[in-house]
Fold:
Amino acid sequence: MQKNQIGVIGLAVMGSNLALNMADHGYHVALFNRTYEVGVKVISENPHTHLHLYKELEDFVASLEKPRKIMIMVKAGNPVDLVINGLIPLLDEGDIIMDGGNSNFHDTIRRTEAIEAKGLRYLGVGISGGEEGARFGPAIMPGGSKDAYTYVQDILENIAAKYNNEPCATYMGTDGAGHYVKMVHNGIEYADMQLIAESYSVLKHLGGFTNDEMAAIFNEWNQGELESFLIEITAQIFKEVDPATGKHMVDVILDTAAQKGTGKWTAEEALNTGTDASLLASAVFARFMSSQKQQRVAASEILKPEFDKAIINDKEYFVEMVRKALYASKIIAYAQGFDLLKNASVEYKWDLDFGAIARNFREGCIIRARFLNRISDAYNTNPALANLMLDDSFARQLEDYHQSLRDVISMAIQNGISMPAFTTAISYFDSYRSARSNANLIQAQRDLFGAHTFERIDMDGVFHYEWNSNNEEK
Ligand code: NBP
Structure:
């Protein structure tokens, strides 16, 4: 009997669509789901000659050709461990377990060690693109044993999204590297979305644009250098009308943003690796603030804002200013995301290829954008680039655009419009280009109250100063 070439465990949105994608590419796919009826429903709704559902895990495993290749697509966290524990006694040396969910990379490192100690092979596979991506071509970020990857490379490359025929499936590095890159992808996604939301705030409240006008503005932006999946869907969202009320959908949606944790992990990793990813973190904090709806409503009555209303005379000029502010902030967001990857690569010894990562993001994933070609070019020109903002082409553009960012922020702040990501973007830009910061004063304070010592600009060594002595003399 024909053996299955790959198995998928977990048949919710992602697992079932990924399995269909594999089947469409000619692979015989074994399916298993904790709740069997879910699998039956998937099969009955999507009949396919190459999909084979099993009720018992033993039969699912026995149906696979060796070395067995099993993709776990269950809810991240403990369910992944439970599935792995169930599989281990059924597998043979050299079999390959892949976790395609949004697992925390620390878990992936721990699982890799435990599983490989048993003679099995493990891959932590970041997958982006949501339901559509899983079905027709996601961006795939595999990490783990390179040897294991050679067995699944063809399958992953075949089902992945293609950019100019190049598969968006790239081996990222050992153990948790794939899930780390996926995590940073999501951190950047949070920032991209927050920057777009702040552009919406100023267009709506300062520019006075209607939803239909904003649909046209975003549509036009999507024809130029901002072209991306997120800008495209934003234009689409502004057009949608709620059949129940006749109002625009965007206006009937409650203004509290949910999150599943990958943005928060990115912010935690910024702190753990000593990286300034303040813009990425600001997008996470903005979601926290958005979820405090009741408090915000109450506060709006007490801390009533009274600001001058901005008068925008030249609307066309204003839209262009917001566009430039958004693009400049986007460069800065990616600079922070790639800086985090750079520091993580050293910290976890992954030897990440930043140009390859940018190329992998060009199709299939949520942050896919024309812009990623420029990032890839920047790292091709200089793989050791300290920061994306130092790349010639980005540096020149920031020089051109940063004034627009300042102007938009100033107008927004004068009018009481919150801009956490835009303001963090310009602060990061200004801090990064300051040859002399204000940290000399902080060092002085630390030395005064805690004798923490400091270095001097004019002498080598470490110094402590008796801060009261001069005063006493005076
Ligand atoms: P969910 O994250 O909603 O998980 C549902 C699946 O997990 C079902 O198959 C469920 O089986 C299984 N499961 C659970 Br819950 N507990 C289990 C356990 N103890 N043992 C075995 N199976 C268990 O599914 P999803 O939205 O398809 O996402 C799958 C993974 O992909 C997640 O890690 C997610 O974060 C990631 N991801 C999702 C998206 C997206 O757009 N949804 C995008 C990218 C990545 P049951 O049917 O028996 O309850």
Notes: Residues 10-15, 33-35, 38, 73-76, 79, 82-83, 101-102, 127-128, 130-131 surround NBP (CB under 6 Å). The CA atoms of residues 444 and 461 lie 15 Å apart.
